[in-house]
Amino acid sequence: MRVTALAxxxxxxxxxxxxxxxxxxxxxxxGMRAHDxxxxxxxxxxxxxxxxLAWILQTTLVRGLARLGQDVVLGLRQDLFDHLTTxxxxxFSQQKAGWIIARLTSDVDALSDVLSQGLTTLVVNTLTLLxxxxxxxxxxxxxxxxALVILPPTxxxxxxxxxxxxxAFLRVRxxxxxxxxxxxxxxxxxxxxxxxxxxxxxxxxxxxANDANRQTNTYAQYLNSLFFPAIELxxxxxxxxxxxxxxxxxxxxxxxIGTLVSSVFVLNLVFQPLQELSDLYGQVQSAGAAMxxxxxxxxxxxxxxxxxxxxxxxxxxxxxxxxxxxFAYGRDPVLxxxxxxxxxxxxxxxxxxxxxxxxxxxxxVGRFYDPDDGAIRVDGHDLRALELRSYRRQLGVVLQDPFxxxxxxxxxxxxxxxxxxxxxxxxxxxAVGVDRIARRFESGLLHEVREGGAGxxxxxxxxxxxxxxxxxxxxxxxxxxxxxxxxxxxxILIEQALDRLLRGRTSIIIAHRLATVRRxxxxxxxxxxxxxxxxxxxxxxxxxxPFRRLASQLKGADQALxxxxxxxxxxxxxxxxxxxxxxxxxx
Amino acid sequence: xxxxFLSVDPPDLNLWPTAKGLAGLWREQWRLVTLGLVCxxxxxxxxxxxxxxxxxxxxxxxxxxxxxxxxxxxxxxxxLVLALLRxxxxxxxxxxxxRTGIRVEARMRELLYQAxxxxxxAFYDRHATGQVVSRATNDLYPIRYFxxxxxxxxxQSLMMIVGIAIVLFLVNVKLAALALVAMPFVAVLAxxxxxxxxxxxxxxxxxxxxVTEAADEAVVGIExxxxxxxxxxxxxxxxxxxxxxxxxxxxxxxxxxxxxPGLLFLxxxxxGAVVYFxxxxxxxxxxxYGQFFLFYxxxxxxxxxxxxxxxxxxxxxxxxASASRSFAWLQxxxxxxxxxHPTSLPTGPVGVRFDDxxxxxxxxxxxxxxxxxxxxAGEVIAVCGPTGAxxxxxxxxxxxxxxxxxxxxxxxxxxxxDLPLEELRASVAIVTQRPILFSIPLRDNLTAARPDAPWxxxxxxxxxxxxxxxxxxxxxxxxxxxxxRGVNLSGGQRQRVALARALVAGARVVVLDDPMSAVDxxxxxxxxxxxxxxxxxxxxxxxTQRLSTVEVADRAVVLDDGVIxxxxxxxxxxARGGLFTRLFGEEVSAAA
Lengths: 587, 592
Hints:
Mean pLDDT of chain A: 84
Shape of chain B: elongated
CATH class of the largest domain in chain B: Alpha Beta
CATH topology of the largest domain in chain B: Rossmann fold
CATH architecture of the largest domain in chain B: 3-Layer(aba) Sandwich
Structural class of chain A: alpha/beta
CATH superfamily of the largest domain in chain A: ABC transporter type 1, transmembrane domain
Oligomer: heterodimer
Strand order of the largest sheet of chain B: 6-7-8-3-9-10
Largest sheet of chain B: 6 strands, mixed
């Protein structure tokens, strides 16, 4: 409906300037030559009226086309984004983040450019071109034929330019992005460049990139400088041909001066659209390429989705069973038929060297992947039979290097439970010690976190993400302990926060620290996708097996060993430890 | 405390110095500029001559006013020759002018980049990377278009407008006056449009950047989003931003819709006047068909120069705005000062001394308040302390990333400020807290500090820093490309490469700022064992949070609130029960 209306508008507004010239012809032939001043006056009124109408039509057309294009773009962008959020982690681990983001931004923008300005240019100019050619024939078909003679070389030239300039434009884009990348890398690595006296080498690199960009630009401009004057030249050639033919016809009396003069003016309407259309070609091509890439994303089926008949998960108790589960990311299996049972409210620690399958196990519990074989059951229900989102809303995850979203610290805590009140957020922050971090900043919990948490240490980020999980009040918690260095006071805060977080929930902890392992009700040692040892902390320490070796490598144990070599008094009780923890708090 | 701070955020320049700066760059290209202007002049003449010849062709040969009909072909031949000439000259003008712009842009960019290489750290603390990059890229485009198109086109437009006016007035004064009344509005309209649409298109750019940010965040944080089942929220957030872009683009389109068809309509008023009044003159016999044609054609030719003037005026505003920002940086930011009387370092191992060093970042309170620390030649010292104690600030004074606000940093007995910057930095190798690698092959990253380093030394450094261990597993070994387009190394691996790079540098002073924070415990132990021999003979400062790294050092100092509060061997300090014990001892007793 809207499209039809716009099409009618487009045809009318393209026909207007040609019509106006037909009126000019009438003014010359029937006004000036016939010495009819009334006719002349009427013609001029008609001329202005037609142009005024064209003005209104075009205004409406430009707005309508922009609206149409932007609605399409918006719909596409939202669909694409919504679709992306349903894709599984496997997809996100296979595609680089930058690649995915480019689909949502530069590709959609490329389409947007074509659909907003491009669509107007395309519609208006194509129609004007056609209307002008029709107009030429209406005025005098012989002159129309003469003008058509010039059309083939013009089309060939235009085509040549399109192809050349598109290629040139692509090269310009390449050199610009190479140069921008070089500058960006220099700027972000400036400390190292300066510290190691690498200025000259980087300047040489830059000069190369800058020069390449200059050259590709120069070539693109060379093509431009050639094409537009050439079109202009062809326009004059067409005009001369028309004047030549028209002059002869006029002398034989088979043509009027008005027709000839108007035809020359109509010729302008043929050549101008050609110039504008040739600019569009590159845009349309890159939009086509963009659409293709967008389609590949839209065509990707989400791997994890609700099975038909999946039921909503009611409040979960938290009894978790991993039944004979095998899993492979690619061809090589990462988990070999593992069996785990965590009773509701219990804490399970997974230890082992990286690549043993700890994170994979945790991800299967979060249903980021489905097992290839076996099943994961919560309160006896296979995860695949539960509605995904109703299950995940009862799941809490604290990642090793937690991602913080742009917004305040409070926003981040509220992430999983957006309707929480300020008081609730403040309570949670206090409960896990985030308030102490927040005190470092003037605006406290309202401190704006930037770019994934810059300005906060890994430990502080983890603390905030613990608060986030606590506020979400999950039934099952997955906690991946940070491996990076955390200064001692923050570490103490995290330990205390963890106490609070684990209370009354089923939890799986990927542990890197001795203190955390001790806390668990059961410990599993995972090696090469198999469970090689399981039991309580004391039982495992007492037994022969991989745990003893691993325990000495856990954080915390590290210092313990070194210090016991030294001549320090060793005080071994857990009570002593919590006492000194308390004493080391900032207050 | 009297030292003034380097200015790193100068205000934008005023119009006059900006124009002077631009004119300077323009003059550098004077040959192309002159060529462009000469061609523009010739273009104007030819563009006027062609319709004039056609006018005579109509009046003398096509529709003769007198009885005699002259031959048509000589007129048309002249038109063709003129058109051919115009084609050539037009090409030269466009090409020469565009090249001027491209060259000026490249030159500006080079000046900026050279300046970036000299700017102090404080500059990079103050300005976001994106801003610094865009000032040398996107911000330069208005300057290029203005110089590479706007200036010459503007001059040509003026010549054309004057030329057309003269021709029209010579042909028929009354008609010319009537026809030209509406024309100035074309320029006004174009100018107003440029001014109105600019802020909106900038706003649209910003809105698009917001979408990118939202997309980036959701994609990077997808695990969190899915884990908590918050897809709806991020979809809604993203949707809002996407809608904002649509609304912005539509606002822009509304302005375009209001102005652009108007720009087409205004000239038709003039043409209407010519048809009416000119037509009456034709009837009255005081105007020929050829003259009517000339009027009509020249009025059509007048539209573009007038529009162009409008565009050029608004382009000039943008160009001067971005040039004023760039020149402000080029002229207003001082590099780290080089010594006026440079001294050289003594040969052999050198010690380091911090002599009552005070430091602050310009805003806020002092970070270092009187640090007194002597490190003997060849000594390895660990700098410990809680987050925010000033460890990194202290270490950053050595390669002169910053200068102390008071006191002195001495290397081999020489004030760091008296050493030529290049010599100082060749003698001090640093591993920054966040390891910075470049998108070049691993091999080149390792030798970045000393490209001519013998390969066996590089291999030895890689062994010591634990790079050799994973380098062998990379797809192309040491030739593997690092970074976005190549292999993304883990944080721990990046740190080890940065460490190896510092070892390869062969500097006499090595500064390690928490060099193994992201390395796992097992690897760290292995590293610590190898590191000590690799550092033999060098003076080393290590900032760290880990006891096992402290163990590498001969001596540890503890920094708290900008002053050194403890100093001694790690064992002594542990036994003392002070801040050091609080930092590292808890683990000991908790785990034992």
